Amino acid sequence: MPPADDFDEAIRLSLDSYNDEKREREDYERDLKRVKLDSQQMLRRGGAHAHDHDSVIDSSHDDAHTAHNLRITQPITFKASPYSFHPPFLSPPIRFDLWTDACVQCSSTRSRIEITNILTNYFRILIRSDVDSLLPSLWLFSHQLGPPYEPNELGIGGHVLNRSLKDVTSISPSKLRQLHHKLGDIGDVAFEATRNRISVIEPKPLTVDAVYSTFLSISQQKGPRSQETKTNLVKKLLVSAKGEQARYLFRSLVQNLRIGAVRTTLSTALARAFAMHYHVSIEESEMAEVVEATGKRARDGEHTRRVEEKLTGAEKVVRRVYARHPNYNTLVKALRESGLDGLEDSVPVSVGTPVQPMLGAITRSFDDVLTRLRHRPFTSEAKLDGQRCQLHARVLSASDTLSEEYVCKGWKSSPFDRIGEQCMVWIRLFSRRLEDMTEKYPDICLSVLEMFKTNPSITSFVVDAEIAAVDDTGRVRPFQELANRSRKAVQMDDVHVKVAVYAFDCMLYNGEPLLDKSFRERRQTLRTNLAPFTFGNCARWDHVPSTDDTHLDAITAFFHQCMSMKAEGIMVKLLDYYEEAEGDYGGDHDADEDTKKKSPSKQKALPATYEPDKRADSWLKVKKDYIAEIGDSMDLVPIGAWHGMGRKNKFWSPILLAVYDDDEGAFTAVCKCMSGFSDAFYDSLNRVYAEDGPNTSSTPFAGVQVGDLNPDIHFNPFQVWECRGADITQSPVYPAAKGMVGEKGLSIRFPRFIRCREDKHVEQANTASDLARMYQLQAE
DNA sequence: CAAGTTGCCTC
DNA sequence: CTCGGAG
DNA sequence: CTCCGAGGAGGCAACTTG
């Protein structure tokens, strides 16, 4: 029991907040009623739909109706180059319409430079006026509410958004569906449905921070009736947002802003904004020298050049730091406190924060591999078909003082004795997109614990690995089996799909970051300190199979060996930093004759360091299905399609494809395809399969079996398309070859269009039995 | 309480 | 994961 | 060469609905 006056104070406070909430709710309900009334009147006048769709996208800016209502400040043009833009001071809190303006302006151009400028200048205004709104803005731009390894999903989609639109604007669901088809973007629907809303009393303008907070609140709703609560929160926002604000609010809610800027551009803009803020000033004395040497006229150009140089430098630093520690919370905090100086040290690679994984560049032939890495020492590793995993582990001793929060987020072992001291091991596993998947793999956590127990010299590590499903004899199983694992709160007893860890890189060992070491050194650290082992119920710890032989026959032999162990292909990795001297052809390769002619004597210097988030040329990905001679293609028949969304909203996309079932003379759906088509081909499809032409229908053509799929339009099956895929999968939805291999149908992984086979008739397409045979073949 | 739907994540 | 478009 | 955004199959988890 608290003392009396504290108690009174507590009562008073809770009453206050109760009254606040009540008032807020009443405000909201009044606004909602008014808005509904407005939109009903508008509908009666036919206002919302009088505009044809071509005018919808582009009219936003010059349309007098949209701009004035929720805006008090004059529109600001952000796109000027940072050195000619002077950020105005706006009184905090920064309003949502400013954020929306930035989105609108980004969407109005395709120039990457302009988009970067717009975001840079937007950030500069915030740094100057309301730096607390910087992080919320960043999160909204980045389609996230926080770092990816923390749980903060919105958990809403088209359903909640459509219901909110229906409730707030009173437009019928069928009308909304129609708009959605026509516009191909839920945000554009929200724009259309709210653009002409006229309110007698303006609702209070939204602030960036309020929108972000509401998003957070949406993400935290859980349990029964949570969808309803979420809908109400969205409605509350929608009442105060119309036109462009509603458009970007909704796009934000489906995490698809389409402003031509995501991660890289955001980091760049952030860097440039802070660089401008902190040290844009080029010393006058510096410039005086320029004037003396080259005259007054050259001064401005030179000044600009020097500023640009500083900005580019800042960009590099921030992008590098972000790739190694991808968390805007930490990054922005450091930038606010000490700017760009010492950023690398204040935001370091750390155990517990995943680094962006390094990626491999696609390579389409072995010759290509040799051309790029010729004469350089490299290794080839099996590219197993599993799941990428970044393991973070460190020992916690009694003397460690760690925040409760930090420890709770990882897997914590029970105490054990080590060099006469009680300690525990703390572990976290991250996926390729940096999601926390520690709970999915308790068996791997046990393996890691075992390593710490048996090797007392280990104190911490960060390791890159592939997790694959394995059978009892240790052979790798297909990806589909790995996918059957449960994901949440898995106990050791619940593990039904055995896995093994195939480590291939080590980014940190015993507190020392190794990213800037060569791959050979990193691999050595991995091999000598974290050796393969099998123990009890632990997942087997292994190193990925590899060969260092760089001869063409050795690589191809290794590739085929990898194929036989069901790998997707190989990863070829440079081992050491290597700078080729001018004209140095070095040793000799068997298969070099062609490539030698093509490539000049000078080759680009390549680093063998760990380059987070870069599709660096020092890692080359070679997969079976990239190589035309090895991968197999199929001839399929287009039987239907959907209305494309976004950029493809004037095209048919995706397109439903079928195999020919020779037994029944039928076409059965096997997969959808949306990749590999050029815009020109899409255009031709609009003619061949015109909506009201002879080759389309709203019901399936005779002999076409679509299963439970429901395409917007059905095609007359008369064409044959060559398509490629990585492999065949068992399918719970597609009817193709159903019953020929187990209960399920079959489908195709990573389907893409290659070309139209004008020379083939539909009877010559691949058949259901072809498909079944191919499936058997790949499963041995 | 079981079945169906959708979100979000892997590749 | 795939691909094409565009700067 | 780099960045973006169209969207593919599939499977678990969590919610709503019957």
Overview of this protein structure:
The protein is of the alpha+beta class and 780 residues long. The chain is built from 26 helices and 23 strands. It has 4 domains: 91-261, DNA ligase i, domain 1; 263-344; 388-399 and 408-544, D-amino Acid Aminotransferase, Chain A, domain 1 (2-Layer Sandwich); 633-779, OB fold (Dihydrolipoamide Acetyltransferase, E2P) (Beta Barrel), CATH 2.40.50.140. The strands form 4 sheets. Strands 3, 4, 5, 6, 7, 8, 9 and 10 form an 8-stranded mixed β-sheet that branches. Strands 14, 15, 16, 17, 18, 19, 20 and 23 form an 8-stranded mixed β-sheet that branches. The chain has a 5-stranded mixed β-sheet with strand order 1-13-12-2-11. Helix 4 (96-107) packs antiparallel against helix 5, helix 9 packs antiparallel against helix 12 and helix 14 (284-294) crosses helix 15 (297-324). The chain binds 3 DNA strands through helix 13, helix 21, strand 16, strand 21 and strand 22.
